[in-house]
Design a protein that fits this description.
Order of helices and strands: HEEEEEEEEEHEEEEEH
Distance between the termini: 22 Å
Shape: elongated
Number of strands: 14
Structural class: alpha+beta
Number of helices: 3
């Protein structure tokens, strides 16, 4: 009886373990926008924001009438596989031209919104009150208060079977970013991209729902175990009567 019971139990567990489960995929949007320019009064032309909120035109311009710009790229991720490290969810590109007639110090709000639709719905946003200093050429310009600690306030996101974690900034290009002070620096004539990245990790395993064939195996297995127990009980009574 003991050996048969172990075999049946092992078969049932094997059926459950090997029942296929759908792999979790992630779909999201990472949207950014600029708003509320303040204290930009001394440059010519003055600071401005595009209608969609994705481009900040800093004050002043080059001889070709081109200003320095901060440009947001919205990121859309569809059916992204899990177990991704440093996956791109947002991006700002800074083109720092050698401009003239600039305002030396102004403020602007940058809002980043992260919205998930798969494998479940979840969203959050963070507002950064940026201070931008356009120093006299040829010194590099600076963006202050683009804080790593504020970015980490997003979430936490625990989707169905997926955890989104370690959201942070990474700089690519001519500039440099100090995550401790929240200072982003770009030299004159430089192009610097500040990316927002995150890790998508499979969370605690979710027990798969047994398929019909697995349920049938379980029923037959339990029936077999019950029948063997019944036979053992009958055999015991027969020996006692003898």
């Amino acid at each position: 009886m003991g050996k048969v019971f172990k075999i049946l139990t092992a078969g049932l567990l094997a059926g459950l373990v090997h029942s296929p489960a759908n792999a979790a995929l992630v779909s999201f949007t990472g949207n950014g926008n600029f708003s509320d320019v303040a204290n930009c009064n001394g440059g010519n032309p003055a600071c401005s924001i595009s209608d969609d909120g994705n481009v900040l035109r800093m004050s002043g311009a080059t001889n070709n009438n081109k200003p320095s710009t901060l440009t947001i790229t919205d990121i859309i991720g569809t059916d992204v596989s899990t177990n991704k490290n440093d996956y791109l969810i947002g991006k700002i590109t800074w083109v720092n031209l050698a401009t003239y007639n600039t305002d030396q110090n102004f403020n602007v709000k940058y809002t980043f919104t992260l919205n998930f639709t798969e494998p479940s719905n979840s969203s959050d946003f963070q507002v950064f009150d940026l201070n931008i200093q356009q120093t006299t050429n040829p010194s590099p310009d600076n963006v202050f208060n683009i804080s790593q600690s504020l970015l980490k306030n997003l979430g936490p996101f625990t989707l169905d079977g997926v955890t989104v974690k370690d959201i942070h900034f990474v700089e690519y290009g001519d500039g440099w970013y100090d995550k401790y002070s929240g200072k982003w620096t770009n030299p004159e004539g430089g192009t610097s991209t500040l990316k927002i990245v995150a890790d998508f990790k499979v969370g605690p395993a979710i027990p798969p729902v047994p398929e019909p064939s697995t349920w049938a195996m379980m029923i037959l297995g339990f029936a077999g175990v019950g029948f063997m127990a019944y036979r053992r009980k009958r055999s015991g009574k027969a020996l006692t009567a003898a």
